Amino acid sequence: MLGFLKEPVVVTAKINVNLVALTIMGFISRLWGLCYPRAVVFDEVYYGQFVSLYMKRIFFVDDSGPPFGHMLLALGGYLGGFDGNFLWNRIGAEYSMNVPVWSLRLLPALAGALCVPLAYQILVELHFSHCAALGAALLILLENSLITQSRFMLLESILIFFILLAVLSYLKFYNLQKHSAFSGSWWFWLLLSGVACSCAVGVKYMGLFTYMLLLATAGLHFWHMIGDQNLSNVSLLCHFLARVLALIIIPMGLYLSFFYVHLALLYRSGPHDQIMTSAFQASLEGGLARITQGQPLEVAYGSQITLRNVLGKPMQCWLHSHTNTYPIRYENGRGSSHQQQVTCYPFKDVNNWWIVKDPGMQQLVVSNPPRPVRHGHIVQLVHGITTRYLNTHDVAAPLSPHSQEVSCYIDYNISMPAQNLWRVEIVNRESDTDVWKTILSEVRFVHVNTSAVLKASGVIGASLPEWGYRQLEVVGEKLSKGYHQSMLWNVEEHRYGKSQEQKEREVELHSPTQMDISKNLSFMAKFTELQWKILTLKNEDTEHKYSSSALDWITMDTNIAYWLHPTSGAQIHLLGNVATWASANAAALVYLCLSLWYLLRRRRKIYDIPEDAWQLWVAAGGVCAGGWAVNYLPFFLMEKTLFLYHYLPAVTFQILLIPVVLQHLCDHLCRSVLLKSMFSALVVAWFSWVYFVYCTFSPVSYGQPALAPAELRALRWKDTWNILIRKQ
């Protein structure tokens, strides 16, 4: 029974020494001196703010992309015990002792290091030789730009890691397709491909480019499977459903989970939540929630309310009035109604309060029981402090002469009667009998007499003159001119009015609300709003000293100075390995020319290379050249400030193309032993050049050692490079 103990238990394992050595070298190149410099380096000033907000659980919105990458950086801060207390206001600022610099930079560095063995494995899975795979990995290892970008608290190295992981996983899955379909390893690599794609998109939306490439590749492969007569209809259906599950459904679910964790962590109000809707703000701890907690949910006749414009552009603002009137004549000579001004005011103020009045009754208090206002009801809006009625008439607005002026009506005993009836239309209603709700309902006010809609003016960036205290214009817009978010309003602050006398009502308007009711948003409602803000909220693009165009990247006519030592000549620049980038451009050109040549020859039934070599050539091009194209060409269509680091995912794929082309030339164009020997010698000489350039620019990739002014001038290989030299 215990006979198996007579023999020793032996475990055997295959170890790829190349892979282990490359991984170790990758870790050394990215982790060496990781804490240097102990100062804010370039965009660390940007991402560091978000890490601090995570540590303090304060909500923020970053229009540059989804939150997964920020959460990974914050994880580094959390593991290092960072408390979030640091003022991220200046590049070059020295880190205080409470900032765990090594921990914050660790995850990007690990991701950058792992890109080296990933490059090796991708070439192996593309069925190229281990020598070609080793060359690809060494080129990634010695790429100065990738080294620099991965050693700081930045997202590009993490993005590239997940992109390469997705490509490798899909290639492994595809290679298992013929002999091990639906096996455990087959499922593992397919699922990992989808997970890696979702993570890449979750770090930056640039990850979508590679995700779309892999989806297109998977679609093409499945199209070929449909023509395989050996596969039954049931088998094809199972393959299709497996791919939909792994490459679409799971990535979408994982993407949602990034936002779920993000919103669960950031539950406190902060400066960024002002751009969100009132309902979203009220769901956060502190801020608006302090004001709105306990407000009545249903708006009733007699309710005292503030109305916030839903659009929030050019800034958030509330419907407002004050005792001042429109001037009799404007600067351009046009006349006005000389009625009381109505504006959109970007600050909370007692003059933002309005009372919802039933036109058929005189009372300005809520009855018992309250009579709720529903979709389609006619109301009057009475300004709380001045008790004048919201009104519009056929008089041109001050800044928008094609729209109607909105005012609070003053009876001058002239032939301009009051027109103060408004129909309440709840845009996001579920039925035509919906009740107008605090915060949740988005409401449009349609003027009964003229059918004009109450709207915050679309004159972006313009405000009323001095007579209007530089506040924003409110107009009556004709329905025929279309629908816009600037026509929507939601009740933000709300109380049930109890005082009929004006003096008592003014005191009441200054008092906080004290009634209990909950208005929590669902996760999907919060996700939808946050996702829309990320996609549509754009900061004004300003010209940056180191911004560049996509054309500058190909020839590396630009660089970025990341950090400069305050006293010595030590500095860090984002600069690529000139030898590698030039070789990558040459490889792409050779691949294009050879592919066109082969296609023309094959059209004439002339086959210069075997069919399996042609298939290998096409597959490698689809991954490497295709990866470069989808990650580079879209930038020509983007209207945003671009930097050299945007090119790093594309150039990574282009670098992988170099050994593909070299092996192809060696195998199929160098037909004699002499030619192969000469070609190998040239490759060794070329690689020595790559290593020489890496060593030459290492001081400005790592920031040490400090170079003398003469040495820095020698590094200015192009006049367009901005190498910083201190005056002696």
From TrEMBL:
<feature type="transmembrane region" description="Helical">
    <location>
        <begin position="578"/>
        <end position="600"/>
    </location>
</feature>
<dbReference type="InterPro" id="IPR003342">
    <property type="entry name" value="ArnT-like_N"/>
</dbReference>
<feature type="domain" description="MIR">
    <location>
        <begin position="370"/>
        <end position="427"/>
    </location>
</feature>
<comment type="similarity">
    <text>Belongs to the glycosyltransferase 39 family.</text>
</comment>
<feature type="transmembrane region" description="Helical">
    <location>
        <begin position="68"/>
        <end position="88"/>
    </location>
</feature>
<feature type="transmembrane region" description="Helical">
    <location>
        <begin position="612"/>
        <end position="630"/>
    </location>
</feature>
<feature type="transmembrane region" description="Helical">
    <location>
        <begin position="642"/>
        <end position="662"/>
    </location>
</feature>
<dbReference type="GO" id="GO:0004169">
    <property type="term" value="F:dolichyl-phosphate-mannose-protein mannosyltransferase activity"/>
</dbReference>
<feature type="transmembrane region" description="Helical">
    <location>
        <begin position="674"/>
        <end position="694"/>
    </location>
</feature>
<keyword id="KW-0472">Membrane</keyword>
<keyword id="KW-0812">Transmembrane</keyword>
<comment type="pathway">
    <text>Protein modification; protein glycosylation.</text>
</comment>
<feature type="transmembrane region" description="Helical">
    <location>
        <begin position="100"/>
        <end position="120"/>
    </location>
</feature>
<keyword id="KW-0256">Endoplasmic reticulum</keyword>
<dbReference type="Pfam" id="PF02815">
    <property type="entry name" value="MIR"/>
</dbReference>
<feature type="domain" description="MIR">
    <location>
        <begin position="296"/>
        <end position="359"/>
    </location>
</feature>
<dbReference type="InterPro" id="IPR036300">
    <property type="entry name" value="MIR_dom_sf"/>
</dbReference>
<dbReference type="InterPro" id="IPR027005">
    <property type="entry name" value="PMT-like"/>
</dbReference>
<dbReference type="Pfam" id="PF02366">
    <property type="entry name" value="PMT"/>
</dbReference>
<feature type="transmembrane region" description="Helical">
    <location>
        <begin position="186"/>
        <end position="219"/>
    </location>
</feature>
<keyword id="KW-0677">Repeat</keyword>
<keyword id="KW-0328">Glycosyltransferase</keyword>
<dbReference type="Pfam" id="PF16192">
    <property type="entry name" value="PMT_4TMC"/>
</dbReference>
<dbReference type="GO" id="GO:0005789">
    <property type="term" value="C:endoplasmic reticulum membrane"/>
</dbReference>
<keyword id="KW-1133">Transmembrane helix</keyword>
<protein>
    <recommendedName>
        <fullName>Protein O-mannosyl-transferase 1</fullName>
        <ecNumber>2.4.1.109</ecNumber>
    </recommendedName>
</protein>
<feature type="transmembrane region" description="Helical">
    <location>
        <begin position="240"/>
        <end position="267"/>
    </location>
</feature>
<dbReference type="InterPro" id="IPR032421">
    <property type="entry name" value="PMT_4TMC"/>
</dbReference>
<keyword id="KW-0808">Transferase</keyword>
<dbReference type="InterPro" id="IPR016093">
    <property type="entry name" value="MIR_motif"/>
</dbReference>
<feature type="transmembrane region" description="Helical">
    <location>
        <begin position="154"/>
        <end position="174"/>
    </location>
</feature>
